[in-house]
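thought: fold this chain, then report.
action: predict
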Amino acid sequence: MSFMNDLRTELSLIFALSDPHLKVDALKKLWLQQANWLVLEDLKLSNCPMGRPERPTLKPPKQVPSRKPSTHEGLGALIHSVCHIEFNAINLALDAAWRFEHMPQRFYLEWAQVAYEEATHFELLSNALIEMGYAYGDFDAHEGLWLMCEKTQDDLLARMALVPRTLEARGLDATPVIQEKLLLLSGPLSVHAKRALEILDTILSDEIKHVQVGNYWYLWLCAKHHLDPQKTYRELTQTYQAPKIRPPFNEAARRLAGFTDEDLQALNEQAALY
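observation:
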């Protein structure tokens, strides 16, 4: 890709790519051209459909088969599920950057970086699958994360509240749980489990920063519109029927990502109601 357009236009073109590996390669090339990036904050781009690969087959979350990671196929399915989340995360970051105009330049630069880092995560996990004899698309997956992105396509405040601050923050909670399962694996699977653990360490470190980006812009928008963050967040979760967030919570990682004591208290109080 040669850099000819403004950054947001380039990101929309990458967003439209269906092949995951072409999408990753395009982001890597774009990242190397940072010195040439031009951001037109007020440019309104026409609606751009997300490029979807033919595989994996997408099903409702409850219809995706559950496999034990103590088998070769089960471990492959587990790695594939995280790989699929990272692919969706690429598109979530791309969508935020190209779709919403009239934001400070920092907003677009940060989401471009998030998209690039999510692409590196996807590539690591995709390679781990190949090492196991699989490929991205070999297992069924669900699209819960992307459905919330579609719901909030006309509301940036809701997008920041319910995607990075809610759904992606769940990754901070889930990663240690997955790592505990991987640590129990032995024998031939231990080699693949060790590689997955290393990748998850990288992902967790980066995801803290990504959730922090979402937290920052959520609070920035609340301040701009004179809204109470706690009250507004509760209202948005109800309006958009956000999934219920259940413990355990990785409070240490959430604090690093910008969650306050008040946020964590509200989270625990809400969880206690379910």
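thought: worth noting. The chain has a mean pLDDT of 93.
final: tokens above.
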